[in-house]
Write a structure and sequence with these properties.
This is SGNH/GDSL hydrolase family protein. The protein is an alpha/beta fold and 368 residues long. It has 15 helices and seven strands.
Length: 368
């Protein structure tokens, strides 16, 4: 036993040391810059290099990344004597939003508030996939475990152990590096030289979906694709097509079922935990008709309002609903989207121009 104990304690102490180092950011210089974690690390480094105050931020998933014209927001805020930086991260959800906010407020206490861009689909559950743990990890507190992490853990999913451990949060990234170290170094060098993180940058999206079977999910599924874009679009339709009856949330009444009550409480708590000096502006971004008509829970948009309306009525948030902004005769325009999720540049600019008067009132002119 005298010799066995050191053999057990030694490796455990080594693992603990590695865990602490990973939590402190030791892996960040090596992490792939084109990964979920890498995008967050690039944003984190850009914040560290930003020399001025940060008044407002944009948070959200890729829907926010593609949904707003960030260059226009940046310039408009600047014309009002404010700074507005885009920190939306593809794949993020409430866990990432709250983690980034907490991290940023400690480093920029002058932060006043910002915009959270999501769709009503992001209010179905309090968590996203376990891959979100890798997105949030670079911003995560070293010692504490924020409340939303409890919803991420699934003992049957190894990647979800990242809710407890930074080693597991970076697990796939470490494996990829060990398999292809030279490729990693080359990729990271390219990003450093050619793709600096910019707070006012928009994705390059000039294409649209007007040549694709856009009218309905059934049309998409039953049309034989003749182009690579058509095949990719059909694959997306297959991925999201429901495999059974859609649940109905159209007329949920109190008392709510346990999972609905837990979801509402968790998301409302997450929003309140932002604790910004000014109420968060939550924008429900345009969502294509396919989701409402064929994919998601019936009454999904109404459910999002059951969560948000009480906060808006109490003045805790400013709620702007643009879910059907691009709908004409119950169908979403094909010229402003690139797929079932994301707007193109035309759509992003049109939406942002429409929002500017309300953002002026809610943010930029609030203290002028």
């Amino acid at each position: 036993m005298r010799f066995l104990l050191p053999r057990i304690i030694g490796p455990l102490l080594l693992l603990l040391l590695i865990e602490i180092l990973f939590r402190l950011g030791a892996w960040e210089p090596i992490a792939a810059r084109d990964s979920h974690s890498g995008t967050s690390i690039r944003a984190k480094q850009a914040v560290a290099e930003w020399s001025g105050p940060i008044d407002y931020i944009t948070l959200g998933s890729s829907r926010a990344e593609y949904g707003f014209d960030h260059g226009l927001l940046f310039k408009h805020a600047k014309s009002r004597g404010r700074s507005h930086l885009n920190l939306s991260q593809p794949g993020s959800h409430w866990l990432t939003i709250t983690t980034i906010s907490e991290w940023l407020r400690k480093r920029h206490p002058e932060l006043k508030g910002g915009v959270i861009g999501l769709s009503y689909l992001d209010f179905q559950y309090p968590k996203n996939g376990s891959y979100e743990l890798a997105i949030a990890q670079p911003f995560r507190p070293v010692l504490s475990r924020p409340a939303l992490y409890q919803f991420q853990f699934d003992r049957n999913d190894l990647s979800s152990y990242g809710a407890w451990s930074a080693l597991f949060a970076y697990r796939q990234d470490v494996r990829d590096f060990l398999a292809h170290p030279r490729k990693r170094l080359t990729t990271n060098q390219w990003f450093a030289a050619n793709k600096p993180y910019r707070f006012d940058e928009n994705p390059e999206t000039n294409r649209d979906v007007c040549a694709l079977p856009w009218d309905s999910l059934d049309q998409c599924l039953n049309t034989v694709p003749t182009t690579p874009d058509g095949a990719a679009f059909q694959n997306a339709c297959r991925t999201f097509a429901p495999t059974g009856a859609r649940v109905d949330w159209s007329n949920l009444t109190e008392p709510l079922a346990p999972d609905r009550a837990e979801t509402r409480a968790a998301i409302q708590t997450a929003i309140r935990s932002l604790d910004w000096p000014e109420p968060p502006v939550i924008v429900l971004l345009p969502t294509t008709h396919h989701w409402r008509d064929s994919i998601t829970a019936l009454g999904g948009a109404r459910w999002a309002h059951q969560i948000l309306d009480p906060l808006a009525e109490s003045g805790e948030i400013v709620l702007i609903d643009r879910t059907e902004f691009f709908d004409v005769d119950q169908k979403t325009r094909c010229d402003v989207f690139i797929d079932l999720h994301h707007q193109n540049g035309l759509g992003a600019r049109a939406l942002t121009e429409n929002l500017l008067p309300e953002l002026d009132r809610a943010l930029y002119q609030r203290q002028l």
